């Protein structure tokens, strides 16, 4: 009993530490400037106000939010399509240099993304893609090493007899992939979708570098610009943070089973 009490006390403390920053975001977003100055950060403002949310949503922020939704959707669809095809080729198709090419590609995960930002920007500048949707999406829409590695490992774990039976029946590689293997890959596809959505929604450094106009500005960059002036409005910043946080909370609530499965799957694979 003592061990169990200590275990639950530790878990409760850990959960509180993890949740506390998000609680501060909510409390600060629902305070006025005077309430923020007069109360401790963890004390709710009474009465709570939605003026910060109204002010933020009454400006250009909904446009940036829509840009983020579009970017996240396109990156997720592109990653699912191209990652699946590349992973199937590396896992099932036989061609010269397959293993060398795959491990060279996976080895790029060892390179920090910040190192490649400047070369990527120079390439996009030479192609006249700076401050365009093509430049924003191009480096990541065709797949990532981690996604291809994950899907390849899952493909390799499927029974080869399924493909052999399909080939005997006259099915080609594309039909085998779409009609036989993909329905069996739902756990891996769900994992890849969740990872891509979260990483795309929270993407900041590359959109900050490649975009400058309102047509392509995303939510994370817009929130950062709120901190660039004199006299930062923390209430407004936290209101934007709350708006950015709500979709992620909704994803966790409705897809927590798949998120837990994704953790198990990535750990095993």
Automatic annotation (TrEMBL):
Keywords (A to Z) from UniProt: Cell membrane, Membrane, Transmembrane, Transmembrane helix, Transport
Signal peptide extent: none
Regions crossing the membrane: 7-30, 64-90, 102-124, 136-155, 236-255
Record bears the keyword Amino-acid biosynthesis: no
Membrane topology note: Multi-pass membrane protein
InterPro entries membership: MetI-like
Domain ABC transmembrane type-1: 65-255
Tagged with keyword Cell membrane: yes
Cell location: Cell membrane
Family: Belongs to the binding-protein-dependent transport system permease family.
Protein name: Carbohydrate ABC transporter permease
Biological source species: Nonomuraea guangzhouensis
